[in-house]
Amino acid sequence: MAAFADEIKRRRTFAIISHPDAGKTTLTEKFLLYGGAINLAGTVKGRKATKHAVSDWMEIEKERGISVTSSVLQFNYEGYCINILDTPGHQDFSEDTYRTLMAADSAVMVIDGSKGVEAQTIKLFKVCVMRHIPIFTFVNKMDREARDPFELMSEIEEVLGIHTCPINWPIGCGKNFKGVYDRQTKQITTFTAAMGGQKEVASRTFDVEGADVDSIIGQDYHAQLRDDIELLDGASDEFDQELVNRGELSPVFFGSALTNFGVETFLEHFLNMTSSPLPRKTLDGQVDPFDEKFSAFVFKIQANMNKAHRDRIAFMRICSGKFEAGMEVNHVQGGKKIRLTQPQQLMAESRKIIEEAYAGDIIGVFDPGIFSIGDTLCAPGGKFQFEGIPTFAPEHFARVRQMDTMKRKQFIKGISQIAQEGAIQIFQEFNTGMEEIIVGVVGVLQFEVLTYRLENEYNVEVKLEQLPFEYIRWVENPGEVDVARIQGTSDMKRICDLKGNPLLLFINSWSVGMVEERNPGLRLAEFGRN
Ligand code: G4P
Questions:
Q1: Residue 269 lies inside a defined structural domain of this protein
Q2: Where does GTP bind (predicted)?
Q3: For labelling, which of 116, 161, 163, 362 has a CA lying 20 to 30 Å from the CA of 381?
């Protein structure tokens, strides 16, 4: 029993978010290096290849050389068992990226010190805020010319609307990057670059009040640091674990993932400031992770990882208890008992079959086509459901036309199945039925994936005509308003999802506000509720 509880206590499950190129992959690799999961020596050059070996399952990923899906990595460090949920680093990320955040207990936001907060970070950050999960900031690339750290702090606060609390503070940057100052221990660690597979950084740590500081970091930098410390102590938010837990205050760290500077310090503080898996909400209560009875929810469905078998893998986050290979569970939404076979876990570079897993872990199980995003699995007899996963707003839309009208049935089957996996959303014209199909995606690459898959898996050729809409809003109170009579703008289009729920599409963002103004009583939502 103690062993069971200890297993859960030592787990930390977090997602890494960033704008492409901020250094998310590099930082993840350095984490794995500390955990001993990979030996980086000699692989830094072939990093891109390694990255692909981790998550490239679909043909299209290989063809395009980019990562379409998110992957999960597990490693051990200082007694902790860490699950990192990676999110695709390419511009064309998908709804999966958002959903991955539903499975994480906290998030690490990597920011490029020379760029600050970028578009993709903002989008992912919004989902973290919606979930009130702790967010940690790693300001990366301090070995390069970076923006003023105070300016970066205010940008994070203003753009993202979160308070920040620097845990350490940079001294210079780029060629003049001297190191970082730890605000708690009041010590300076000098910058030394560890390259390649080197784990130890031969830095020196000494007291900021020490006599030799001037000679080590230089008089000017020392004076600047004194001013900075005074300003920080006077003006910045104090560290407050409660606020961090609620996602209202982000601890900020400075470092350089590439040169392995500040990575281990970050990892240590992060592990101390985050908790083991927390209770998860159900429709009528919550489930304690330490409850011995197994429970999990599906947050991602990955199709055709092995083309020969046309299989699907359902990824689930375990919320309570222990999972054992081959165990029988109740699939609540399907109303059936099922046996979970071929459980898989991603371990650094390969998928492996696992025998057991605990609350906090992510596993992938073979899906014979029965699971949907958000489904609950629990120990036999259990009937509760975890809170649904919201539908995230697509940003690109296209009308889909089938080339061979004789294949209508296959087309509907294919597009519906692909939509069920959650990579695309399908809509119909308002009040006209299935004749015209509109697909919505979060990243445009999904259009290609859709066309490719319909052709290769369902033998249906389609043509996509992209539509100019970029904003979608769910009508929250369709019972209270007559959707057909909404006073729209010239760029507004009414559509509905397959369940008949009405939605509005807009080309311009300001039209959204205009329509809300023109139609008092109409409530529009950015996330769809399942
Ligand atoms: P991503 O996953 O967030 O997209 O970023 P990734 O780690 O792939 O890093 C993007 C680029 O930034 C890489 O260079 C990487 O080496 C570099 N980088 C990451 N962290 C640091 C850092 O702390 N300092 C500096 N100076 N560079 C950093 P690249 O040239 O695009 O790739 P590669 O040819 O080096 O593999």
A1: yes
A2: 18-25, 86-90, 140-143
A3: 362
pLDDT for the residue numbered 93: 65
pLDDT at res. 505: 97
**Which residue's C-alpha comes closest to atom 25 of ligand 1?**
141
- With contact defined as beta carbons under 8 Å apart, do 49 and 29 qualify? no
Amino acid in position 309: H
The pLDDT value recorded for residue 68 is 37
Is there a single domain that holds both residue 259 and residue 310? Answer: no
Same domain, 61 and 131: yes
| Model confidence pLDDT, tens digit, residues 414-446 | 998 888 888 899 999 887 755 689 999 988 888
The CB of 408 under 6 Å from ligand 1? The reply is no
Among 18, 21, 66, which is best to mutate for testing ligand 1, by the most ligand atoms less than 8 A from CB? 21
The minimum-distance atom of ligand 1 relative to the CA of 19 is 3
Total of domains in the chain: 3
Looking at residue 206, its pLDDT comes to 76
Residues 386 and 378: their CA atoms lie apart, in Å, by 10
State if residue 29 touches ligand 1 by the CB under 6 angstroms criterion. Answer: no
**Ligand 1 centroid from CA 141, angstroms:** 8
Positive or negative: CA dihedral 49, 50, 52, 57:
positive
Ligand 1 close to Cβ of residue 51 (< 6 A)? no
pTM: 0.85
Tell whether ligand 1 has an atom less than 6 A from the beta carbon of residue 141: yes
User: Could you give the count of Cα atoms lying within 13 Å of 350 in the half-sphere of its Cβ?
Assistant: 4
In the reported structure, the alpha carbon of residue 128 is separated from the centroid of ligand 1 by a whole-number distance in angstroms of 24
175-to-96, 401, 433 alpha-carbon distances in Å: 39, 56, 63
Residue 274: both structure tokens together = 């985050």
CB-based contacts of 306: which residues, under 8 Å, 6+ apart? Answer: none
Counting from 1 in the atom list of ligand 1, the atom nearest the Cα of 20 is 4
Residue 20 CA to ligand 1 centre (angstroms): 9
Q: How far is the CA of 56 from the centre of ligand 1 (A)?
A: 19
For ligand 1, atom 35: residue with the closest CA = 45
pLDDT given at position 57: 37
Do residues 266 and 284 both lie within one domain? no
**Does one domain contain both 147 and 252?**
yes
Which residues of the chain have a pLDDT value below 50?
Answer: 39-70, 346-350
Provide the CATH number for the domain around residue 92.
3.40.50.300
Domain that holds residue 83: 11-273
